[in-house]
Amino acid sequence: MITYKVLTTNEEMELVQQLEHAVWGTSPIPTHQTLTAVKHGGTVIGAFDGDKIVGFSYGFAGFENGKVSLCSHMLGILPEYRELGIGAELKQQQKQLAVKIGYERMTWTYDPLQTRNAYLNLTKLHGVCDTYIEDCYGKMDDGLNKGLPSDRFQIDWWITSDYVNQFVKKEYDKPTVLASWAYNDQNVPYCDDEYFRKITNFDKEAYLIPVPADINHLKEQDLNVAIDWRMKTRNIFKTLFRNGYTAIELVKTQDKPIHYYLLVPKTKLNIPQ
Hints:
Layout: E1 2-6, H1 10-24, H2 31-39, E2 43-49, E3 52-64, E4 67-77, H3 86-101, E5 106-110, H4 115-124, E6 128-133, E7 152-157, H5 162-165, E8 176-177, E9 180-183, E10 189-192, H6 194-198, E11 207-212, H7 215-221, H8 223-242, E12 245-251, E13 258-265
Parallel strand pairs: 4-5, 8-11
Antiparallel strand pairs: 1-2, 2-3, 3-4, 5-7, 6-7, 9-10, 11-13, 12-13
């Protein structure tokens, strides 16, 4: 049975440090920083299997365009505890605490080619994204990020909105698929964006953008193809965002190496504009 706890002490922050190193193999955040953050509007929440910490979320107070938000900066789970719904519950626990503190919005970033994160952030939590950040963190050499520019989606999670709390799924009639895919001679799926490059006016009710279902496996197969996916989808996403569209869902496929992002006009969503 997994339990969840708000963490506030130096000893608890040291547990988080150990987990950071186990998850990413990188130097952890100093405890004096995380302790200071939680004293000034930040949050650290741990997931425990008995006395063993197996996951955590960390956020700090942010300020953007004259408004305060909670920047949900890190979420990590031990590999053997993934696929158990712990990530989603950590977000929900963080949301409850954020609302109690007084936040209306949470933000965080993730790699748009990491579809596991996309499914959690958009499809399950009902976050939205209309902000694309090129090479957000510069060169990164950890296992998940090595080899690709560190592009990121910025998620906006309107935690007090009806869109999030009273979510009603809408069906879109035949969304337009902006790029196709096929297998190359090495049986690796590549992106063909010829159709997208011919479009001059974006006015459809909804668009679908393909991405690899497993970018980590694709990188192992052919890094150059993975980089090509990064560059082509970067261009497509940024173009759609400039034209007023917002990513709202990751649509999974069955038995295909490709999933799809669903994008719709932001003005059609019941969220702050």
